[in-house]
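Follow-up to my post from last week.
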Amino acid sequence: MLVEFELIKKAQDGDAAAFNQVVVAYRRKTLGTIARLIGRPEDVEDVAQEVFLRLYFSLDQLRSPEGFEAWLYRLTVNAAYDHLRKHRRRAETRVADLSEQQMTMADAAASTTVDRDEIRKRQVRETVDELLSSVSTEDRVLLTLKEVEGLSLKDLEKVYGANENALKVRLFRARQRVLKAFQGSEKGIKTGVGS
Amino acid sequence: MQYEDISSSNERLDRLFLEYRDACDAPELSANFMPALWQKIEARQSSSWIFKKVSGWFVAVSAAASAVLAIALLSTPAVSGGNSYANTYVDALAADHVAEYTLYTEPVHVDKVADYSAGRIIE
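User reply:
Got it. Predicted complex:
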């Protein structure tokens, strides 16, 4: 826990200063989780504000301060779901609107202003985003929490309130689908389809 | 051979996930983060306050209307013949035909009718 239970209790009772302290303590961690869940740095802050907004109005429903972190994870996961669902619809139209020439020009312009490391990071984000689009939004978030965020099955059990075995099955299936897509993309690169 | 291929793909996928973790580091917080958050909280609080106010007003109005209706129903005298359920069918029928008996109380007079075709008066 990053804060004392007392502080959470005070925030639950409507103490604005206590709530402020809770946000300050958890905002960096929450921003990191959101960044990994949605993979779009430009939207992270908006989603984080939505998470803390939901936290403010739902804090009174939290039964015990011990469950605060799992509660915050749950809110983060739900806000990420909402964002990803919206983004999925927008992404389909946005990419379709750009011609190949426009894409090449945009990449060239980027390479002059952004350093190589940043380009590599963007490529990794886009590759993983593409791979994760082969599974549902729910499975994408679950898989990211396990594989990228590094949550254990016990942690996931608390966040989802679901049986460990059911989560294992879902994770296995989602991973298999992503692996298949990954192998497909590797083959495409080798044979020159993806290049 | 195929197993090795899957195993190495799994390892490469794990490495890609690790690389993704590094590529998705948390962005720097803008100075506006907390003020913007409190603005959103206050905006939602005021909208929910208006909603509560309006819904409270509706509840009060509907409660008052129910009370008025209840008073109106209680103060209205019961419909006549409230004990009509206790009456028998014959009583009800008799009550319904009272008008017929009272209309024809006089004896019927047979007047003289002129039979013009025969040229005489029939008694």
